[in-house]
Each structure stands twice: as structure tokens, then as C-alpha cells.
Amino acid sequence: MVAQPREPDPHQRVREIIASVPAGRVATYGDIAAIAGLRSPRQVGWILREDGSDLPWHRILRADGTAAPQLRAEQLHLLRSEGVLAQRQKVSLRRYRWDQG
Description:
Oligomer: single chain
Mean pLDDT: 93
Number of strands: 4
Structural class: mainly alpha
Distance between the termini: 38 Å
CATH superfamily: Winged helix-like DNA-binding domain superfamily/Winged helix DNA-binding domain
Helix content: 40-55%
CATH class: Mainly Alpha
Number of helices: 5
């Protein structure tokens, strides 16, 4: 019997993708989900919430460039320390979005 190649664990894949977002750049939950082949950006949020404290979680934003409300102050502070500036609590995805290509 020939062993079939294993598909990468989606949880681990999301962690790897988030870990690769460089300082000074951001991605959206949807960006990460699309790269990882997930159906929903919410899955990325669940993974980050459960197993993301050691990742650059602050570089992952909502689709409109805003931070999660409960993390907004800390997230924007961490982004600012990397040179990512927000206007009216919104990050310009056009300017700071990570181009993984």
C-alpha cells in the first residue's frame, strides 16, 4: 500500500503564515484564510485566540483595516512601534498590506 502525502495541518499552516508577516506590514484575517485555504476568516481568529500569543498577532486586522475592538489600543500601539500608522484607528491596507508574493 502506498502512503498518500498528508495535507498540511490547517492550524499549523495558519500559524506559519502569520509568523511570516514581516514587521511593518499587515494582513487581514481574510488574507490569511485565503492563503491557508480556509473557508472563513473567522477560523483564523479562532486559531489566533486559542494559540497565537507567540505570534505577531497584532499584524492581523479586520477587512476594513481596523483592529479588534477588545485589542485596539494594544494592537495599534504595537503596530505604531513597527512604523505602521493608523488614522482614526484604521490602518491603510493600500499602504501597509503584506504582499506575500
